[in-house]
From TrEMBL:
Domain Peptidase A1: 57-413
Nucleotide-binding listed as a keyword: no
Family membership: Belongs to the peptidase A1 family.
Protein name: Peptidase A1 domain-containing protein
Highest taxon in the source lineage: Eukaryota
Keyword Signal included in the entry's annotation: yes
Keywords carried by this UniProt record: Signal
Organism: Clathrus columnatus
Alphabetical list of PANTHER family matching this protein: AGR407CP, BETA-SITE APP-CLEAVING ENZYME, ISOFORM A-RELATED
Biological process terms in GO annotation: proteolysis
Amino acid sequence: MNRGFVVWVTALLLAWNGMALIPTNSSSREVYKQSSPKVRHSDSLPRVTLAARQTTNSASLRRRGAKDIGNIIYSSVSADLWIISDQCQTAQCKGNPSYPLLTYTSPSFHSVNDNQTIFNISFADSTGVSIFDCIVRLVLLKDIYYPKGASGFVAKETVQVDSLAMPNQTLGLVNSTNVNLGPSVSGVFGLGFSRLSQISSLVPEASPFVPALVERGVLDYPLVGLSLTYDTSGTLSFGAIDKSVVPNVSLISWHAVEPFSPLPGQNASTTPLYLDWVIPLDGIVVNGTNLPLHSSFPTITGKNPLGLLDVGFTGISGPYEDVAAIFFQLDTIRQASPGVWAVPGTNVTLQPIDFLIGPTEGDPNLCLSWPIAQIPPDDDGVAWHFGTPFLRTVYTIFSYGVAGKEPPLIGLYPLHNSTTFTGNATILSSAFSSLSATVETTLPPVLLPTPTLVIPSYIFNTSVTPLPTFGQILPIQSDDGNSSYTPLFTRPPDASPGVLLLTNVSALPTIAAPPSVSTVVITDALGATHTSTSTLELIPTRILGLPPGEYTLNSANSLLKLGGLAWTFTIIIALKLCPWT
């Protein structure tokens, strides 16, 4: 029996696994900064690599003219860049590459307030214990659980991502953390909005890395593109869209990012409205059956639930009643614990590389499966969290907006429209071998009762109605005379807020990775032609642990490998055609 999950949406977010491309120009801009004390973060994060070659899933972030910092974790639900220093003595820091405060004096290092500006960041919400916490602690990722955090101080340093350097970039140097970064990982690189930045709230003139690139006009356009795959061939692009993944940019559907009101006590006139890469969802179709979705706060955020694109989440979660409705459409399901279901591993034809968490200990014919139910709901109205399983099915563009002219947008380009797995046997074998033999979960002998759901109080100011504004980046006159980006989207006459049209498709910047195969045609003395092909190795600027000068930059475009094969659940997502598509 064929089984298929389809989610109809009006907007969605981000993920991991690839190579980065950075076109550049030379104008400058200034960012509008107003931070929020609320910080969202996932418990597990994909690994980002900041130099690429075909034989590795990792590379390095480095300080200009000095040593490599190390590999970093890429996050779409945080904004700051922070790395561990050699002053960090917690167990999670030991053995990992660190910023050498004690052993090296960097000429480009600048202290902030004599290193007395304390940096503290916590990940996710540690209030209560949800089923997401339980499955992370007890089932899937036993070494990663709430609460997590990092502390240190704020400083400035020249940070370079291959050929793209940012002098005096404000970052956090961490001397204590309980975040399990993983081998050879040195910190976290955020791609979120400035409102999420802890550092911007401490140092008013500071901007996170990506908004800083936009401020200075370094990028061709204020966007980041991401392609995730089942292997290591994905791409991350800064300022342009990878045309090797998206051959026809006119087929991208564009979705307005959901704005959020200020927190109680915040100034509504100065607090940016955009907080997370969140979009509204329309519905779910399971085996041809339309299932309604439920908003956590319908009278506040509207009848459509909100979905967060979270590169750091290795699964999918949603409201209990919606997730239960999905599984009730399937045969022979078992509820393993409140909000977690097991499905027959032989009858479901969705890609097993995506939706199965792993076989249960009590019955190897049953596997725990995504999505899981989030109990209780989040207090910000975000009902669904879409991680890498969804993000592997689309090419995702995060457009930060143009001040006064264009709001933040998410572009989605479907990479396939079939539920048939197209990966090779090697990918499947590797994925299965990465799983534990069984998941330590004992299925209950009786049906579990429906949990009592307690809806929390809405965290944002309900007296302020957020409306989409046109970008957070305030343009200033730059050195080369360019005062702002030219917007590519316009609002049609009499259109409602957020409805935009891409008016100039050809102006949307694109870029492609350097060729990975070289073809040589030789004509010999007798006139015969001989053709040979060879694979080209992409050489990064530096390899972690090797001295400066060992490698040379081979391209003006920076290459970024996003490593890690995730074993998660994919809901096949089809996009509803929107008025601004």
